[in-house]
Amino acid sequence: MHRVASAADAISLSASGGDGLAMPDDEDDVVGNVTRTASAVTWWTVSSTVLCIGLLLHSGFDVPWFVAVIVFAEILISLARLWGQLVRSGAKRSEKRRHRLRHFMSVRLHEGAPVDELVASFLSLDQMECVKSLEVGSNCSRAAKSREHQLAFLVTFRDQRRLNAFLASSERAAFLSTIAPYTTEEFVFDFESGVMT
Predict the structure, then answer these.
(1) Is 21:151 a contact under the CB 8 Å cutoff?
(2) Which of 31, 36, 145, 161 has its CA 20 to 30 A from that of 78?
(3) Secondary structure, 3-state, the chain
(4) What pTM did the predictor assign?
(5) Taking every annotated instance into account, which residue ranges of this chain make up the domain Stress-response A/B barrel (predicted)?
């Protein structure tokens, strides 16, 4: 995970028109599987092609027509296998991305609240095993419907069990106790992204 130099940098991203700070949402398990599959199929394709070309060179290209057809078919099958694996792994990756649990919280702060300290406290939640990713940003809405909330926090989880663990954790309780003296109002909303029921 990448770290932010300071919480002020995170807030300035939003103040300058950005979306705020987004901690990397690593898909190591998915990327690793795709990479391993692509590597294995690529190895199969290359080794089959080299073996077939070696057979042809060894025989001086003076082979019966059916051997040439077999060599050509082997190359085509290897390429089809590579293409099929990449397509299937891409579909699995998009399916995994579709369903994520998110915990959203926005707060209205007292004048003079230590924003850097509050953002740093939130970013410390990244160390928790159950947390997949974190995002934080300041309000840049021009629609006057934000109830003057200044900061938003978003935590992503892989499943309901991890969300429940987060909600019951002492780390979350410590974050809430850090932010509570500086808030006049908060709004919390949990949702599953990519799913409409």
Answers:
(1) no
(2) 31
(3) CCCCCCHHHHHHHHHCCCCCEECCCCCHHHHHHHHHHHHHHHHHHHHHHHHHHHHHHHCCCCCCHHHHHHHHHHHHHHHHHHHHHHHHHHHHHHHHHHCEEEEEEEEEECCCCCHHHHHHHHHHHHHCCCCCEEEEEECCCCCCCCCCCCEEEEEEECCHHHHHHHHCCHHHHHHHHHHHHHEEEEEEEEEEECCCC
(4) 0.51
(5) 101-191
Encode pLDDT of 63-105 as tens digits. 677 767 777 777 777 777 777 766 776 655 555 555 788 998 9
Beta-sheet strand order (sheet of 183-193): 21-22, 133-138, 151-157, 100-109, 183-193
pLDDT tens-digit profile of 145-191? 778 788 889 999 888 899 999 999 999 999 899 899 998 888 888 88
Tally the C-alpha atoms within 13 A of residue 1's C-alpha that lie toward its C-beta.
19
